Amino acid sequence: MESTADTPISALAPALQQLRQAWQANKPDYDQRRADLQRLRDALKQRLPEMADTIAADFGHRSRHESLIADGMTVLNEIDHLSSHLRGWMKPRRVGVGWRFWPARAEVRSEPVGVVGVISPWNYPVNLALIPLATAIAAGNHVYLKPSEHTPRTTAFLRSLLEGVFPVNRVAVAAGGAELAGAFAGLPFDHLVFTGSTAVGRKVMAAAAPNLTPLTLELGGKSPAIICADYPVEQAAARLATGKWFNGGQTCIAPDYVLIDEGRVPALVQALRVQVLERYGDFSEPGDYTRIINDGQYRRLRGYLDDARARGLDVVELATVDATRAAAERLLPPTLVLEPGDDAKVMQEEIFGPILPIRTYRTLDEAIAFVNARDRPLSMYPFSRDRGNVEKILHNTLAGGVTVNDTVLHFGINDLPFGGIGPSGMGAYHGRAGYDALTKALPILWQSRRAGSDLLKPPYSRVARFIDFIVR
Question: Domain 224-417 has what CATH class?
Fold first, then answer.
């Protein structure tokens, strides 16, 4: 599929107005929301092979199976969850009023907010576009989607997919680069969901501020893995390898660096080397290994390794690839950087690639202090079979989300809110958390024909005893 034409900036506001007018004229009820979700599911399921081929073309090479898992299964799973719970989530929730307000009654209704903007990234270009979109549809909203300019073929696929499911006044797609994205973020949405880097997230927040647009920001950061002294190195290596090298490391919640107790670094290096060989062979034909998305990202990652070598650090490539071929294919093999200092570039920025720094600690308290000295991460991965160790880490740190004794899997659990904290993001979505984020919890008090509040008016001397009674 060829890339789609860019959307003129001048077309953004009229498209938003069309979406809003259509929403105000016909706010989606349960039947429409449920039908929309089912049509979206059916359309995506039918086109999964095309989806995988399209994403691979944008990446140069991406594992077909990784696309089916990360951009296919996750979206279908989320739509299924939304559909199965939607009726219950839409029901008004009765709440007590307290004896002072009897006989009034109260309830909370989840009301759609209007038009939701979604700015999605390139690393999981279908997943991170369609999960917030489907959540917004379930919540009764219309959606304006701005996919990443770095995956233009997938943007064209998304536009084609969505045009076959929704009328243009219910879901619209804008295509373009950074300038268009900035204008898009400045539109007066009723809610805006952005997934991307912390640096760009700041720009999105600034663009949305004049309109006081509510935001869900899913950002990134340096997510640590802490391997405690009691945890087997081989099992830790296997689970780190899955989380770190899936999608070529281009995952916002991938383990960004590892902290391990002193003396076990050689064993961890060897165990990770074994994992690479078992998963990808000698890299002569690494069909299951995803390439780096573009030349700019490839140069950035190579720059981290050049910086590490210039500092005299031990850089361990876990597979050998001819330099000419590596550059031509943007093929960066799994690579370790041992004991980098805080001044190394690999420890200053989110890596977002298959490079894994490993640092040692002497005590668990030292490892916890290392994590706490940095921005709160999007994810954290404690490895220990001692519940006390895990609870100590959880009690003394704070991250956007945690998987214990594994990596990245918390993202796929529908009932776990997904979101960061501070520089790693704000707000959360997935399942009920996403539904609640994209609806207004509307409080309603129903007053009775006769109520004690009718007495609360001057002159208060007439009802002094009643006031004394209710303020006791």
Answer: alpha beta
